[in-house]
TrEMBL record:
One of its GO terms (cellular component) is plasma membrane. This is Diguanylate cyclase (GGDEF) domain-containing protein. SMART domains: GGDEF. Keywords: Coiled coil. GO terms for molecular function: diguanylate cyclase activity. Gene3D superfamilies: 3.30.70.270, PAS domain (3.30.450.20).
Length: 323
């Protein structure tokens, strides 16, 4: 059963020896390159690579595998039995199995939409047509590969950031929050959270348009970063809601930090249209978890809006008022 699942997996799996010969592959890979598993067994991986892919394997993949033991998210081009070129995302890791070096590879097909892939294909074509330019083209190829690696790093950065405001996204914030909770359980270090929302933001969009609304969100994000401690984690939580994790701040200090931000936003003359914000603050206790802490801040923010907006309310103020 496990062998069948591996053979029919959605991703292509290939195992190579250190010389680059295929020692095993799943049926998904065989179907992808239009060979049978019998034809692939013992064949060199370069058998299914185009010229640029072979050159790239020799210049980057093999050296990196030998140096650090793995490569991740590398774009390569496979050539099928029918001479069809297929762009793929390639990752591999070097293992020692029974004193034998084995390179396990995972291959995913990707669409042809990356600018640098097209440039690499053009370079490959020139390599085949003008052999005398090989040395110069080799340099260019390495440069383009470095650009591609840089692009991959940039794409990973985008995976952690909100596309509009460039603040951290919700996933990163929740990860940081869990880290703060673990630190609290280990050391007792207090921390707080503020949840803020733009007052009457729908009116901004309705009256001035979504482009102006986007400008307001971007400028608010800049204001948050500029006027807050470097240890804070600011993130866009969704829509016009933002959240800030404030390590090592108790109720009083956290409320003061939130009030400082509220005042800066109210007085800021650089917003496209004047805005105010309502902020709810909560401070972590031993009876809390991530959900209850966020819920407390949300209730405090709702109380701030009920009280006339453009205010800061700590959750403890609500609990004291109801006692």
């Amino acid at each position: 059963m496990e062998e069948t699942r591996w053979d029919e997996a959605i991703a292509s799996f290939v195992s190579l020896n250190l010389a680059g010969h295929i020692v095993n592959c799943n049926q998904t890979f065989a179907d992808f390159v239009k060979y049978t598993k019998v034809e692939l067994n013992g064949a060199h991986i370069e058998h299914v690579l185009n010229n640029a892919g072979r050159f790239f394997f020799h210049s980057l993949v093999y050296p990196k595998l030998r140096a650090v033991g793995q490569v991740e998210d590398i774009y390569i081009t496979l050539e099928t039995k029918e001479s069809q070129l297929k762009d793929c995302l390639f990752s591999a890791k070097l293992f020692n199995e029974h004193d034998q070096a084995v390179i396990d590879c995972i291959i995913f097909p990707v669409s042809r939409q990356i600018k640098y892939e097209k440039e690499l294909k053009e370079i490959n074509k020139r390599l085949e047509e003008v052999l005398k330019e090989k040395e110069a083209l080799h340099t260019t190829l390495i440069e383009k590969q470095q650009q591609l690696l840089t692009l991959n790093k940039e794409l990973k950065r985008y995976a952690t950031r909100d596309w509009l405001t460039k603040l951290y996204n919700r996933r990163v914030f929740l990860d940081r929050l869990e880290q703060a909770i673990h630190r609290f359980n280990r050391t007792g270090e207090s921390f707080s959270l503020m949840l803020l929302d733009i007052d009457y933001f729908k009116r901004v969009n309705d009256q001035y348009g979504h482009s102006v609304g986007d400008d307001v969100l971007i400028h608010l994000a800049h204001t948050m970063v500029y006027h807050q401690d470097l240890s804070f984690t600011s993130a866009r939580f969704g829509g016009e809601e933002f959240v800030v994790l404030m390590p090592d701040l108790t109720e009083k200090a956290a409320t003061e930090a939130a009030e400082l931000l509220r005042a800066h936003v109210e007085k800021d003359q650089f917003f496209t249209v004047p805005i105010t914000i309502s902020i709810g603050v909560s401070t972590f206790t031993s009876s809390d978890d991530s959900d209850t802490l966020i819920l407390k801040a949300d209730k405090a923010m709702y109380k701030a809006k009920q009280s006339g907006r453009n205010k800061v309310v700590h959750y403890n103020q609500i609990s004291h008022d109801t006692q």
